[in-house]
Write a structure and sequence with these properties.
alpha/beta, Rossmann fold, seven-stranded parallel sheet, 8 helices
Length: 251
């Protein structure tokens, strides 16, 4: 019988209260991880943690704004105090508003880069010293396939997600000698509870039509690849960006 891929591993997941982050937190717990779920949405995050524990998994929720060190640090400190290690960091927190560039405000640009990219820096900066000290760790950044497609009305979003890919590649070079693996996932159009806020049914249908795979992608599709990149099964992979987009973009 195969043992759980993340048995007794400690994993920090940002943006964990819904969508892709929720699927990652649930799957990691099913695979034996001690999950630290971080999100700004307290009610949904606490419900997630309660549900995971009721199913026999391990999950602690922390209300945290991933771009603010002072809100993330308590979760990192708690993990180190309880378990003495952090084995995986999933940088998933992000927003996805659309805005034509000519209508975009400075505040909208700054907010996008702050939430989507600065959060990756903040969380990684807090976690990676512990990984370096223990000489092991897996970091997975959740980017977007839009970086490879260059869609309109998303210049601020794509800039943030492209920055994440660049950050992944550079940090992977620095961290590899310390036994820390840094990789990235670029999801395509994923069916989540919030997608109706940013895309019409017609737009969603066009996304599926561009895929080789003729079905909607689900958060679990992304979570499974994240599990692979966070486990020993991916020990030969570093600095890579893996598209989980149903074959919309092939590179």
């Amino acid at each position: 019988m195969n043992h759980p891929l993340l048995k007794d591993k400690v994993a920090v997941v940002t943006g964990a209260a819904a969508g892709i982050g929720e699927a990652i937190a649930r799957l990691f717990a099913e695979e034996g991880a001690r999950v630290y779920a971080l999100d700004i949405h307290t009610e949904a995050g606490e419900a997630l943690a309660t549900n995971i524990r009721a199913a026999g998994g391990s999950c602690a929720f922390f209300a945290a704004d991933a771009r603010r060190k002072e809100t993330v640090e308590p979760a990192v400190d708690d993990a180190m105090s309880r378990f003495g290690r952090i084995d995986a960091l999933i940088n998933n927190a992000g927003i996805y508003p659309r805005r034509p560039f000519l209508e975009m405000t400075d505040e909208e640009w700054d907010e996008m880069l702050d939430i989507n990219l600065k959060s990756v820096y903040v969380c990684t900066k807090l976690v990676v010293p512990h990984m370096v000290k223990q000489r092991s760790g897996k970091i997975v950044n959740i980017s977007s396939v839009t970086f490879f497609k260059g869609l309109p009305n998303l210049s601020h979003y794509i800039a943030s997600k492209g920055g994440m890919i660049g950050f992944t590649r550079s940090l992977a070079r620095e961290m590899a000698p310390h036994g820390v693996y840094v990789n990235c996932i670029a999801p395509g159009g994923v069916q989540t509870e919030n997608e109706g806020r940013v895309a019409t049914q017609e737009e969603i249908a066009r996304i599926v039509a561009q895929q080789a795979l003729p079905r909607r992608l689900k958060p679990l599709d992304v979570a499974r690849v994240c599990l692979f990149l966070s486990s020993e099964w991916s020990d030969g992979i570093i600095g890579q960006t893996i598209n989980v987009d149903g074959g919309a973009v092939m590179k």
